[in-house]
Amino acid sequence: MALLLVLLQKGLAEASRAVAQPGGFVPRAARESLAQGQGKGLAIMARNGTSLEGKLVVLVGGSGFFGTHLAQELLSSGARLRIASRNPERAFKLKPLAGLGQVQFARCDMTKPESLARVVAGADAVVNLVGAFDGNLDAVQGHGAGTLARLAQEAGAQSFVHVSAIGADVAGTTAYAQSKAAGEAAVLGAFPTATILRPSVLFGPDDKFINMFAGLLAAFPVMPVFGPAAQLQPLFVDDAALAVVAALGNPKEHGGKTYELGGPEVLTMQEINQRIAKAQGRSPLFLPLPDGVSGAFATLTGWLPLAPLTRQQWSLLKAGNVVAPKAKGCKALGIAPRPLSLFLDRWMVRYRKHGRFGDKAAA
Description:
alpha/beta
């Protein structure tokens, strides 16, 4: 067990370095030029269907992975942006992608209402992207989300989108699921016409999901798989961004509603790892771990820095992360989500043994 932890921690470090390499952050225009025609057409149609031109949109928690992708979509729609977070400097890479005066940055903290009031002042629309797996979850994504919604309402915002998560449940088995459900209720209580979006796990060229497993598979010939039968419905991050833009642009149609967002495929953890390995041209030995072993591993090591899996994350993984059968989804927002297979071969080039020259080397 100790050896397994060491290997996984080393692999996570390798994965983190891979994500940080040049090319990890891909400007939206470059991503569109690389995507097939379907994706680019969807992006254009979605922008033409919105009314965000010149509107001030505030992204609270907007300096992270999803926030930077959403910001690019909003900038392309003609919106003015205020990106607010505890560390707004992480989003400074967006400056070259904006027009003169189109984007500004502000510092805020979900546990400090006065800072939230400052950043939503004058906003036409507000998006809450803040989330956490540990710490004071109620303050961050429970009643804190309700406070943000109330302040946005008082500031005169016309639309509010709250990004929650599939599995939010007041009766859930984890504090994460419970706090997410409490946040949804608090938001709708303060801003009844808010739109709730519950995405599945998001993937993209600069994510920490696909890239984490890609780094592990590139580093080791043996790959333990936690929850091999757990089902996920991975959603391309730019399609999630289109969903937010659609909700912001038409609050009369989407306000007060909850949408669960997933990609076109339901995949198990085992299948995801196998696809990543195939795209890298590798044939590792997979070791599917029984639930008892996975749970014990998460319990014993989840408190460590760089731990691959906490007990709470294991509980969420085991429960699965797929759209409920009768839930409103991407289709109701006018989005046709793109599959992981559309991008994976191209994204895995840098993880192949000989990189771009892998095919030639093999020949």
